[in-house]
Automatic annotation (TrEMBL), chain A:
The chain crosses the membrane at residues 6-26, 59-78, 90-112, 132-158, 188-210, 265-284. Keywords: Amino-acid transport, Cell inner membrane, Cell membrane, Membrane, Transmembrane, Transmembrane helix, Transport. This is Branched-chain amino acid ABC transporter permease. PANTHER family: BRANCHED-CHAIN AMINO ACID TRANSPORT SYSTEM PERMEASE PROTEIN LIVH, HIGH-AFFINITY BRANCHED-CHAIN AMINO ACID TRANSPORT SYSTEM PERMEASE PROTEIN LIVH. Gene3D superfamilies: ABC transporter involved in vitamin B12 uptake, BtuC. Its main location: membrane.
From TrEMBL, chain B:
It is found in: Cell membrane. Keywords: Cell membrane, Membrane, Transmembrane, Transmembrane helix. InterPro entries: ABC_transp_permease, LivM-like. This is Branched-chain amino acid ABC transporter permease. CDD domains: TM_PBP1_LivM_like. The chain crosses the membrane at residues 7-25, 37-55, 62-81, 87-107, 114-132, 152-170, 197-217, 237-262, 274-290. It is a multi-pass membrane protein. The keyword Transmembrane helix applies. The keyword ATP-binding does not apply. Its main location: membrane.
């Protein structure tokens, strides 16, 4: 029953990707920007969680909350300082700025605290269950339930609250939303806040699960989360969740069958295949280009 | 007649620059440090100019240029180290294989646009890097030791070849077709330009010169490792083109020369260097999104008062 175990591992990893991918997909949906700095917000979240746990002796959930709030503020700051002026710039200018912001956060962090990694403290007791012959750790179940809980909260915010309605309206048509009296700037900031909070949560979860964090840890998960977002159909929230899970499972399977060095390549191969054969993603609709 | 005269004038000027520097290197006025700096500068200029063709002229936003650099570097290193080919042939083979890699990457991914193309090229570059990382024949993660064969002569003439070919390509009808693709792909298509063909040609040509730079690069540093060709290398090349101005050949050259010097002075402070790089990227995009030179060339500034009689693309 080893495959059940691998499946659970894959889904736990996938739920981390999904949490990051949600931020990508929400931001892309609303301002059509690939926020390259999103992976670094994830890194910042992991470090804030680390300092909250090891510095102040907090438990997992308070640390998660602090990291989420701090990342939300951080995300809004990045948006206000760097991206707000670029609303009417070309896509390439916006993309280059995002790359610049990402490098700035990474190397600013290295400049402040050095590049050495930190070992995450043990905050969740780790028991192993025997479930139909498969060994499943309580940690991965915990991670899975926290991620699913956060995704449910996100669904609630997007579909049942006023700000969620505003977000959907702005992503559909920003001009028309403005005419209907929606404050577009605040809505975009709220999107960044929610997306960054999810990335911060993913950072803490990643730290607890993999126990090692460093200032450049956000690069690869960030790109992979983007792959997950594209896989599910960028701009579509359930797509990001499914895409993240699929990617996590595929990566775990590739490692499990003995190609662990090729694991990172698997994500990119998926990306390229999906871009070539179905650029709008699993859940996406084809939009026709108008001249 | 006049155009070819200008061309030969520049050519003679270039040869004089080469001869003076070569004389100073053999005469000992320029020590090892400065000759290495000049070679590195030439390599970076070749990379900047080759990416300029893809991003600046054809408007295809590729952020995976380091992948082709890696192909050129590894293939030419294999040629000299394993098959004992002469360095010149190895450079050529490396560049040709890189351009084939460019074709393989370009044909599927150039169907995509904008952000998607950027991510796809990034993905391809990573795949290329991971392939080298997992190939024991070229040393895997430990890297591959290589003899130093790159000299100022090789670096300079490769640079000259790159600039001449790309400048002339840009001015030819093919280059203008590429510019049309950059300005408006749909309109270019409607005017009967085979947009896919020109995008792929520009991409393969850019990859060819990136591969050439790769050959020089690997034979300059004694050891190549897959980690040298990651995201950061691609962004290094990107920043030359962006800072110089998307669409300006001389801008790309100036930016590459300046930033090579800056990074040479900051080699002891790598994170300061990256902070400066990233701030430059952000500030340039926020306050001068067209880069230092925009789409102008430096020669445009020497043409005050002269009126060209039509047909000159660069005059506004």
């Amino acid at each position: 029953m080893e495959w059940v175990q691998q499946l659970v591992n894959g889904i736990s990893l996938g739920s981390i990707y999904a949490l990051i991918a949600l931020g990508y997909t929400m931001v892309y949906g609303i301002i059509k920007l690939i926020n390259f700095a999103h992976g670094d917000v994830f890194m910042i979240g992991a470090f804030i969680g680390f300092y909250a746990i090891s510095g102040w002796g907090l438990g997992f959930f308070p640390a998660l909350l602090i990291a989420m709030v701090a990342c939300a503020i951080f995300g809004v700051l990045v948006e206000r300082i760097a991206y707000k002026r670029l609303r009417n710039a070309t896509r390439i200018a916006a993309l280059i700025t995002a790359i610049g912001v990402s490098l700035f956060i990474e190397y600013g962090m290295i400049f402040i605290r050095g590049a050495q990694p930190e070992a995450y403290p043990d905050v969740l007791s780790n028991k192993t269950f025997n479930f139909f012959g498969a060994n499943i750790s309580s940690q991965s179940l915990m991670i899975l339930s926290v991620s699913v809980g956060l995704m449910l909260i996100l669904q609630f915010i997007v579909h049942k609250t006023k700000i969620g309605k505003a977000m959907r309206a702005v992503s559909h048509d920003a001009e028309a939303a403005k005419l209907m009296g929606i404050n577009v700037d605040n809505t975009i900031s709220a999107t960044f806040a929610i997306g960054s909070a999810l990335a911060g949560a993913a950072g803490v979860i990643f730290g607890v699960y993999y126990t090692k964090i460093d200032p450049l840890m956000g690069v690869i998960p960030g790109v992979k989360a983007f792959v997950a977002a594209v896989l599910g159909g960028i701009g579509i929230i359930p797509g990001a969740m499914v895409g993240g899970m699929v990617l996590g499972v595929v990566e775990t399977v590739v490692s499990a069958i003995g190609f662990s060095l090729w694991r990172d390549a698997a994500a990119f191969v998926i990306l390229i295949l999906i871009l070539i054969f179905r650029p709008s993603g699993i859940f996406g609709k084809n939009t026709r280009e108008k001249v | 007649m006049k155009k070819s005269k200008v061309f030969w004038m520049y050519f003679v000027a270039a040869i004089i620059v080469y001869a003076v520097i070569q004389g100073m290197i053999t005469g000992g006025q320029l020590d090892q440090y400065y000759s290495n700096l000049l070679i590195l500068m030439s390599i970076n200029v070749i990379l900047a100019v080759s990416l300029h063709l893809v991003i600046g002229i054809t408007g295809q936003f590729s952020i995976g240029h380091a992948g082709f650099l890696a192909v050129g570097a590894y293939i030419s290193a294999i040629c000299t180290m394993k098959f004992d080919l002469p360095f010149f042939a190895a450079l050529l083979v490396g560049a040709i294989v890189a351009s084939v890699a460019g074709l393989i990457v370009g044909i599927p991914s150039l169907r995509l646009k904008g952000d998607y193309l950027a991510i796809a090229t990034l993905g391809f570059a990573e795949i290329i890097r991971i392939i080298f990382l997992n190939t024991d024949y070229v040393g895997g993660a430990a890297g591959m030791p290589i003899n130093q064969l790159t000299t100022w002569t090789y670096a300079f003439f490769s640079l000259l070849l790159t600039v001449v070919v790309i400048a002339n390509f840009t001015k030819s009808r093919h280059g203008r077709a590429c510019v049309a693709v950059r300005e408006d792909e749909i309109a270019a298509d409607a005017m009967g330009i085979n947009t896919t063909y020109y995008k792929v040609v520009a991409f393969a040509l850019g990859s060819f010169f990136a591969g050439l730079a790769g050959g020089l690069f690997s034979h300059q540093f004694f050891l190549i490792q897959p980690t040298q060709f990651g995201f950061l290398k691609s962004f290094d090349i990107l920043i030359y083109v962006v800072l110089g101005g998307l669409g300006s050949l001389s801008g790309a050259i100036i930016a590459a020369v300046l930033l090579t010097m800056v990074s040479m002075y900051l080699t002891d402070f790598p994170e300061t260097r990256m902070i400066i790089y990233s701030l430059v990227l952000i500030i340039v995009m926020l306050y001068r999104p067209s880069g230092l030179m925009g789409t102008k060339e430096i020669t445009d500034y020497f043409k005050f008062g002269k009126r060209s009689k039509g047909g000159n693309l660069d005059d506004k």
